[in-house]
Structure formats: structure tokens, C-alpha cells
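User: Hi! I'm working on a homework problem where we have to compare a predicted structure to a textbook description. Could you give me the structure for the chain below?
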Amino acid sequence: MAMSSPVATTHRHAPDWLILTIACVAQFMVVLDVSVVNVALPHMGHDLKLSENKAQWIINAYVLTFAGFLLLGGRAADLFGRRKVYLLGIAVFTIASIGAGFAHNGSQMIIARAIQGLGGAILSPATLTIIVTTFHGARLPKAIGAWSAVAGAGGAVGGLAGGLLTGYANWRWVFFINVPFGIAAALIAGIYLQERRNQDATFKLDVTGAILVTGGLTALIYGVVNTTSSSWTSSSTLSWLLGSAVLLIGFIFWEARVASHPLVPFRIFHSRPLTIANIVMLLAGGAFFAMWYFLTYYFQNILGYDAVRAGFAFLPMAVGIIVGAQLSSRLLVKVGVRPLLLVGAAFATIGFFWLSLITPTSSYWGNILVPAFLCSFAMGLLFAPLATAATVNVERSDAGLASGILNTARQVGGSLSLAILGTVAYDRTQAYVRAVSQNTHSPAAVQKLAYVAGYNRAFEISAAIALVAFFVSWALPAKVGHHSNHAQPADPASAAASSGH
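Assistant: Happy to help. Predicted C-alpha cells:
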């Protein structure tokens, strides 16, 4: 999204700090909304009469539309102008937040969250475009650093913020809190933000591609989740899976043969490091998304934590992400990409396997904290090397596209993994209930044992996914990012933009 072409501007003026604030506030909101819902999820599911398995759609609806339209949003900012796209994104995001806050059933919530994800996909790339078209020279790295820090903070504090809002107010305030910030950001941007756009931009928005890939992924995930009530060979499940296949094949054909300006130009995957980085991000993103989801329910349904305590329980994990990311960025130039990926994937494998040993009587301090921190630390370690691998061998003009694809891979991996692992955990729970229904345990004890059996299976598979990521990382060339002028990502924001839970 770097804009080297001439730009059209109005005669408005605002201090740089205000422009930076406009960009950072919006990005904070978008990233926060990926993670802030986690702790509130059991309360939402109860009030909206959604089962634990169905409640995952509150997350998936946001993440899928965010991922499916993210690249489209980035191109819209170049084509139509950063001010117009920013205001459109903030309006859609804020209005959808109001709708989610007032939702009275699962359908209303899921629709509102999907629209909110669309708003985020429009808004997030516009915030980075605002920065790269406002700041130049030595000021640009500092501005991107501030933007990245705020994006990272949004992902890190989401669990705590969700717990505090749910515990001291109501889960609906997880969404309502966006409204005053959204209104303030829109008013300030409307008054002070200059309009700038790429005058040489002649490409068209690939709306068809975005709809095909989002629809295909949604149908795939719905088909997987549908197996909790119907078999894999049932007509309903097969219909969703077939529909998904048709849409995804249609997406590939459209992008490769029809679209004049494709959403995902497949030529970019000629870069081997980029391809490997996206596979690893798809796998790692899936495992980590599932961790937040299952630990949320374990803390509240098994250990009996209230929302506030659950929010604080996630705080060390947020610290783990930050520490890992900081350490990784410092070691990257010295050791290169592949060693950091291997260490991060190995730590994640150990951490997830350790978490798979939890029982209904496990303690937070003795059995949860260390492996969860290890997983989070591993997540932080992976950010910078994956962003570097994705961008180091691509043209500078494609750096924004490469970073956007990497972020999309993480979101898609998270949604797919959450659907698959949620379904596997549900099946394992039901099988456990049937197996022990005749024993002497009380119904409450059986329920806890059954839920934990499902979580155990989910963490076991997460460990296997992390192990696959470890072996895939070996396919990277040994010298990528090692003692190289390209040892930092071409788009430094990409790692931070991926830091929401």
C-alpha cells in the first residue's frame, strides 16, 4: 500500500500527532475486537441461547469477513482515497457494534459481527494508508512503530478488557465501548483528515473474488460445524461442503483466469519464502486461536472463574506475546528467519501438549500458567520472522499485498481451526458422556469431565498442528533474513497487525 504516485489533496491541515491518533484509535478498535469477545463468550452464549459449539460463530463471523475483505479494503483506500474509506469503515464498524450490543438472539449477533468484520476490513488498511501518505523520511518508521505498538496493545489487552467490561457492566459493553470512540474518530477525521488517493490507480475492486472466497470458507466451516448434529455423509453436510468446493474452485478460476485486477495475484506465490510463511501462519494461527477459545471456557466453566478473574488470567499470556515479539525482532538479524520459526514452533508444540494434560482439578498456577505462557511466547516469536519471510523476496510494490495475504492466512487459519477443533471437542465430549453415563459420578462431575476430555483432544490436535508447522519451517531457505538488509519486514506493520488473539 506504499503510495509513490502523485496524490490529490485538499487544503486542510492538522498536526501530525492528530493524524497519527486518528489512525491509531481506529486500528486499536479493530484489533481489540478480535480478542475482547473471548472472555465474554460464555455469557453471550448463555444469554443468546447458543451452545458452546455454536457460540464460536460469534468469533468466526467477524474473523471470516475481516479476512475475506481485508485485501479489498487495502485497494479501496488507494482507489477512492484514505479519508472516504476511513469514514466508511468507521461508520460500518460503529453501527455494527451497536447492532451487536443490542442483539437478542444468535442470528442477530452473528449478522452484526459479520458486518463488523467487514467494517474492520475496510478500516484497518486505511489506517496504515493514512500513515504512509502523511509521514515521510525519518518520521515514517516512528509513526509505524507507534501504530504497531497500539495494534499489539489492542490484541494483548483484549482479554482483560473483555473481562472487566463483562464483570463490572455487561457483556454488551464489549461492543458499546466502540461507539464513543468511533463517533469521536469519525468527527475528528471528517474535520481534519486530508483526502489523498493514488491518482494513477486504474485497477478495479475485485468484489467478486472477495465474495467467492468468503462464501466458500463460510460454507466449509458451516459444513464442518454441522457434523455436530448431522453425520459427515448426511445430505445437509455434503451440500455445504459441495457448495464450499464450488465457490473456492470458482475463486481460484476467477483469480487466475478472469479477474483483470485479482484480489490475490497468484504470481506472488512464486516466492518460496512467502509460500512457506503463509502455510506456517495458517497452521500457527489456527492453533493459537483455538487456545484462547478453549481456555476461556475452561477458566469459567471448569475452574469457576468470573469474567474479571478470567480476564486477568489471560494477562500473563499477553505479556508472553509481547516478550516473544520483542525478543524475536532483536534476534532476527543475528540468527535469521528459520531458526526462530523452528524454536517458536517447537515451544508451541510443547506448550499445547502440556495443556492437553489438564484435568477438572488442575490449578491455574500449577498446571495452566507455564504451558499457556510458553504457547503465547512462541506466538510472539513467530511474528517478525514470518513477516520477514513473506516480504523479503517480493517487489517493494507488492510488500503491502504480501503482508495482507499473511494476515489473511492467520485469520483464515484461526476460523478453520476453531471450527474443526470445536467440532472435534464437541464430539469427544458427547462420546465421553455416553461412555460414563452409567457410572456413579454426579451429573455435574460427568459434565466437567466430559468438557475437559473435549478440551484435551483439542489441545492434542493443536500440538500436532504446531508440530506440522515445525516441519514445514524446515522448507525455508537457510539464509532468509540472516545478516541481510531485508532482515526486517518490508511492511513493519504486518506483524503487529496480526497480533490480535
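For your comparison, note the following. The radius of gyration is 22 Å. Residues 1-11, 483-500 have pLDDT under 50 and may be disordered. Good luck with the assignment!
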